[in-house]
C-alpha cells in the first residue's frame, strides 16, 4: 500500500523567481527554530548534541527521513537545512506524539515537511506499539513495536503500558513511494528495532547509500534478540558503512562506545 500521508500543509514556499515574502517569513522562522534547538544542544539539555552535526550531512534540496520523529526536534532542524527545495518525511506512529508533531510543523509553516503516521519495520502490515505510562502520562520516547520483541526490555521499569495498533511499512516501500531522486539521510530512533528497519531497507541501502543516524543501545536491541555490537558489526561489515560519533565534529569509532547512544554510519 502507498504510505503517502500528504504534506503538513498544502503547497510550497517560493518559486522560479525566488522566495515570496511569505516564503521568506517561513524560512526565517525555520532558521530561528534551528538556532534555538542548536543552542539547547550545546548546553547539553534535552536536545541531542548530534543535531549540531546534521549540516555536515545534508545540503539544500536534499531529501531526508526522520523515523521515530516523536515531537520533531530532528525534523525541524533537517527542514531548515534542506529548505523549501528539499523534503523531510517524518514517521511517527503514536497518536499523541504525531498530533504534537503535526501542530509544530504547521505552526512553523514547513510545507516541505511531510508527516506519516506509520512505523517502519521488516515487513508491511500492522503491529502493536507499546507505549509505557508513568504517573498516568505516556512516555512517548520509549514506545516500541512488540513484533519480534521477546520481552519489554528496559521498559519493565514502567508500571503500565498502552498498546496501539499501528500500520507498518518498510523503508524500501517508503523510499519507492516518496523519494523520486536520491535519499541523503535516514535518522532513526526506534527503540531497539534498528535491525528490522535495516531488514526492510536492503534496496534503499544498496541503491541510495544514505547516511544513517541511528540510536543503538544494547538495553533496547537485546529485547529483539540482537546485541548492539552485532548490529554495529552488520552495519560496518556486511553493509560497508563507516561509523562515527559526534564530539565537536564527527569522529570515527570502531565499535560501540559506552558513553554514546547515537551513531552516524556513512557510506
Report on the structure:
With 267 residues, the protein is of the alpha/beta class. The chain is built from 8 helices and 13 strands. It has helices spanning 21-43, 73-82, 95-108, 171-178, 194-199, 202-207, 218-221, 228-238; strands spanning 63-67, 87-91, 113-116, 119-121, 125-134, 137-138, 144-145, 160-170, 185-188, 211-215, 242-246, 250-252, 262-266. The strands form 2 sheets. Strands 3-2-1-9-10-13-11-12 form an 8-stranded mixed β-sheet. Strands 4, 5, 6, 7 and 8 form a 5-stranded mixed β-sheet that branches. The two termini are 30 Å apart. The model is unreliable at 1-20 (pLDDT under 50).
In terms of structural class, how would the helical and strand content be classed? alpha/beta
Mean pLDDT rating: 91
What percent of the residues sit in helical stretches (DSSP H or I)?
25-40%
The number of E-state strands comes to 13
Short description:
This protein is α/β, with parallel strands linked by helices and 267 residues long. It has helices at 21-43, 73-82, 95-108, 171-178, 194-199, 202-207, 218-221, 228-238; strands spanning 63-67, 87-91, 113-116, 119-121, 125-134, 137-138, 144-145, 160-170, 185-188, 211-215, 242-246, 250-252, 262-266. Mean pLDDT is 91; it is low at 1-20.
Amino acid at each position: 500500500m502507498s504510505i503517502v500521508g500528504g504534506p503538513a500543509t498544502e503547497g510550497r514556499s517560493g518559486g522560479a523567481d525566488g522566495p515570496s515574502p511569505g516564503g521568506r517569513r517561513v524560512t526565517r522562522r525555520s532558521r530561528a527554530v534551528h538556532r534555538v534547538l542548536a543552542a539547547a544542544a550545546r548546553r547539553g539539555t534535552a536536545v541531542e548534541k548530534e543535531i549540531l552535526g546534521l549540516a555536515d550531512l545534508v545540503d539544500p534540496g536534499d531529501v531526508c527521513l526522520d523515523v521515530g520523529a516523536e515531537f520533531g526536534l530532528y525534523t525541524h532542524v533537517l527542514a531548515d537545512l534542506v529548505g523549501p527545495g528539499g523534503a523531510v518525511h517524518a514517521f511517527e506512529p503514536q497518536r499523541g506524539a504525531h498530533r504534537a508533531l503535526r501542530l509544530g510543523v504547521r505552526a512553523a509553516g514547513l510545507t516541505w515537511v511531510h508527516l506519516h503516521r506509520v512505523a517502519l519495520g521488516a515487513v508491511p502490515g500492522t503491529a502493536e506499539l507499546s507505549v509505557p505510562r508513568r504517573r498516568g502520562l505516556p512516555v512517548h520516547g520509549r514506545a516500541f513495536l512488540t513484533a519480534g520483541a521477546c520481552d519489554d526490555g528496559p521498559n519493565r521499569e514502567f508500571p503500565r503500558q498502552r498498546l496501539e495498533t499501528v500500520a507498518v511499512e518498510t523503508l524500501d516501500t517508503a523510499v519507492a513511494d516518496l523519494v523520486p531522486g536520491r535519499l541523503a539521510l535516514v535518522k532513526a530512533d526506534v527503540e531497539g528495532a534498528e535491525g528490522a528497519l535495516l531488514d526492510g531497507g536492503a534496496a534503499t541501502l544498496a541503491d541510495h547509500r544514505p547516511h544513517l543516524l541511528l540510536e543503538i543501545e544494547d538495553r533496547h536491541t537485546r529485547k529483539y534478540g540482537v546485541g548492539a555490537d552485532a548490529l554495529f558489526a552488520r552495519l560496518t561489515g556486511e553493509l560497508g558503512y563507516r561509523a562515527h560519533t559526534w564530539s565537536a565534529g564527527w569522529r570515527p569509532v570502531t565499535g560501540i562506545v559506552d558513553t554514546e547512544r547515537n551513531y552516524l554510519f556513512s557510506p
